[in-house]
């Protein structure tokens, strides 16, 4: 831990500065424990990736902002689902804006069972309110791989990923900027090939949100075929694909804050070994992290 010394703090700003600049992240905050839900904010309509438990906080944030702005305008949400494992859809029953008439929720995915999965998780005895009891208009749209879609002002395409039961990554592009959301995806030996399809999918992304649940040793020896990747593969693919910012995501839920912080430091150190002059920035996702693109 950095030596703080004795410092006399006389203003709130000085105190805030000390907390934000001098204290290590696990001391001043926490990475949190919500499951997958990422907002891509641009314009009026809301783009989201996955509907894990983070969707509950997001819904509350939307309601709070509307009440602060005294706005009764209806909202439109576009939610892109990576796959139907429970940690990626379980926030939806707690998404308050979906209960409000006038709001629109569009849910996209690559699975025939997409709508059924959302219906079933709110059927008795799992939840007291069925999906059709939610008062917003809720639609489900099946996407196809290989197509590029124009949704809420973004160009959107998907890629099939290696995960039990498959999963899909998404690439969003607008105004020369690009964000890739690629979670629950295992990269194996073919990731070393020059024509590995993910290199193209990640190419020049401003931000790559990347599943790195395990350190490399676990990923290779104990957890091969579990459907997740390592931080080191994330660094290597990011450098090869000229990604600007790598955001480590879907980290191991049994890790405490100190362990995750060390995981981030190790990942940054590996970048220096693997590609010393690379300008790649690396973050580890925490609840509420905002990245400007
Ligand atoms: Zn999964
Ligand atoms: Zn998952």
Secondary-structure map with pairings?
Elements: H1 12-22, H2 25-28, E1 38-41, E2 46-49, H3 54-68, E3 76-80, E4 104-109, H4 114-120, E5 137-142, E6 149-151, E7 154-161, E8 167-174, E9 177-182, H5 197-202, E10 207-211, H6 216-222, H7 231-240, E11 245-249, H8 257-274, E12 281-284
Parallel strand pairs: 2-3, 3-4, 4-5, 9-10, 10-11, 11-12
Antiparallel strand pairs: 1-2, 6-7, 7-8, 8-9
Helix pairs in contact: 7-8
Outline of this structure?
The protein has eight helices and twelve strands. 27% of the residues lie in helices and 22% in strands.
Report mean pLDDT, rounded to a whole number: 92
Q: Which secondary-structure class do the elements indicate?
A: alpha/beta
Please give the share of residues in helix. 25-40%
Q: Tell me which ligands are bound.
A: zinc ion
Task: Tell me the total number of β-strands.
Answer: 12
What would the principal axes of the Cα set say about the shape? globular
Individual helix count: 8
């Amino acid at each position: 831990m950095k030596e703080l010394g004795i410092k006399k703090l006389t203003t709130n700003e000085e105190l805030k500065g000390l907390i934000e600049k001098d204290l290590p992240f696990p001391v001043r905050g926490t990475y949190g424990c919500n499951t997958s839900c990422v907002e891509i904010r641009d314009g009026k309509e809301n783009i989201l990736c996955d509907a894990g438990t983070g969707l509950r906080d997001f819904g509350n944030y939307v309601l709070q902002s509307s009440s602060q702005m005294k706005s009764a305008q209806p909202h439109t949400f576009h939610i892109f689902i990576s796959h139907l494992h429970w940690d990626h859809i379980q926030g939806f029953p707690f998404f308050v804006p979906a209960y409000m008439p006038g709001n629109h929720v569009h849910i996209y995915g690559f699975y025939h069972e997409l709508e059924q999965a959302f219906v079933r998780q709110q059927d008795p005895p799992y939840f007291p309110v069925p999906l059709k009891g939610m008062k917003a208009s809720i639609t489900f749209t099946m996407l196809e791989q290989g197509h590029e879609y124009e949704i809420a002002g973004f160009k959107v395409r998907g890629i099939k990923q290696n995960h039990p039961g498959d999963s899909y990554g998404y690439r969003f592009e607008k105004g020369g900027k690009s964000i890739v959301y690629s979670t629950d995806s295992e990269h194996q030996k073919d990731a070393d090939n020059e024509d590995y399809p993910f290199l193209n999918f990640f190419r020049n992304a401003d931000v790559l949100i990347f599943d790195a649940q395990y350190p490399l040793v676990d990923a290779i020896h104990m957890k091969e075929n579990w459907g997740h990747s390592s931080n080191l593969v994330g660094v290597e693919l990011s450098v090869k694909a000229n990604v600007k910012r790598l955001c480590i995501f879907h980290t191991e839920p049994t890790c405490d804050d100190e362990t995750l912080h060390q995981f981030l430091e190790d990942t940054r150190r590996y970048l220096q070994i693997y590609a010393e002059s690379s300008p790649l920035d690396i973050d580890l996702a925490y609840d509420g992290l905002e990245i400007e693109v």
